[in-house]
Every structure is written in structure tokens, then in C-alpha cells.
Amino acid sequence: MRNCSRFWAVLVMALGLGMMGTSVAYSSSVTAQNIADLLELSEHVITGDVISVTDGIDANNVPYTEVTVNVKEVIRGDNIGATYTFRQFGLLEPRDMGNGITNVNVIPDGWSTYASGEKVMLFMYQAASITGLRTTVGLNQGKFHQVDGGYINAAGNGTLFRGVDIQAGLLTPAEEKMIQGAGKVKADVFEGFVRKAVGDKWIETRRLTNEK
What is the pLDDT of residues 80-136, one digit of tens each? Predict the structure, then answer.
């Protein structure tokens, strides 16, 4: 998975420059990602509220969904301002082009989807160098939405802490409990965990390692 961001950048290019009337019959398949993968592969980690979700087709005929987030915190990466807007491949729904052609290049299965009003934590890949499109690490595994004070991804956090080894003494009791459990994680505990892992460079110093 170390070349995953490059792979998805190439894939997005291929899909986006396809024939307008051709369906992208593609079901995304990606290796299960844990917190070590999300931290290692992300350029930005942010929390905030989704304030708008729109779609369109750019000047190169690449269909996209555009997401704008009211940023609460930038945990990793350069300061991106009070609001952050990014585009990923695919329309929200098929679009009548008005010339007898319907563009059915919608967001592929398994990719992150967004709704206005969501509270989210996003682990973002670096933007593709040519198209500028980007998505979350591990596709929908790298987007966490907040429900009743807890974060959960589209995979139900099923592999979030599977196969990781964390140096003894780094975690609070609440964090120890979190990594032993399954399903939704408390938002404040998870944010604190990620904040420490990024700030203290747990991945770079191998205090958090991937054993899968």
C-alpha cells in the first residue's frame, strides 16, 4: 500500500478523462487500513464540519464532487485556513448533458461520500499532481464521521487498530481501552490519540508500528 496514493492519482486520471457517455463500471477494492496506514499515508489530517457538497465537470471533462469543510483543527499538514475545499473524482448522481448523453461517472463504490452538516475527521492523501483531485486514505476508511460524540468510518472501524503495535507507556487508560475495543470511538479520545501520534512522530520513530 506504500504506492497507494500514486495508484489512485493515476486511476482518477484514467477515469476522469474517459468518454462522457461511458459508465465507470468500477467497484473499488482496497486493502484494509489500520491507524498506522492512515497516519503514514496522509498528507493532512483535519477535523471540522462539512458545509457544502456539490459536483460538476471541469475544463478537462473530469467529473468531480467538491467538498467544503469548516475547519476545526489541522492535526497534520500545513495551515489550510478556516475553510478547506477539495475535489474527488465522480459526480453525486448521473447528469443529463443536454445532448442525448448522460454522464454516469458517479463516485465509485467504496469511496468517501459526504453530506452537509457532518462532523468529520479526514485523513487526506496528497492531491494528484495533474488533476488536483484527492481522496481520503484507504478511500472510505480514512473518513470518520461523528455520531453521538464518537467517530466511525464506513467500515465500522473494523480494522482501525488491528495489527498495530504501540510502545508501552504512551497511552492513557482511555486510549488503552479504545484500542482494545471495536466500533465507534469517543471523539475526544481519538482526536487526542491522533494529535499525540502526529505531534510526537510515533510513526517516524517507530513507537507505533504496523505488524499486519
Answer: 999 999 999 999 999 988 888 999 999 999 999 999 999 999 999 999 988 999 999
| CB contact burial 44-83 (16+ within 10 A = b; e otherwise) | bbbbbbbeebebebeeeebbbbbbbbebeebbbeeeeeee
Number of H helices and number of E strands within the chain?
4, 11
DSSP 34-101: -HHHHHHH-SEEEEEEEEEEEEEE-TTS-EEEEEEEEEEEEEESS---SEEEEEEESBSS-EE-SSS-
Contact residues for 79 (Cβ-Cβ < 8 A; gap 6+): none
Neighbours of 36 (CB within 10 A): 23
State pTM to two decimals: 0.85
Provide the residue ranges of all domains of the chain, joining segments of one domain with +: 4-210
Start-to-end C-alpha separation, the chain:
12
CB 167 within 8 A of CB 154: no
DSSP-derived 3-state class of residue 151 = strand
Tell me the residue length of the chain.
Answer: 212
**Euclidean distance between CA atoms 110 and 126, whole angstroms:** 19
Nearest to 135 by CA among 1, 29, 2, 4: 4
Q: SS3 helix, strand, coil % of the chain, rounded to 5? A: 20, 30, 50
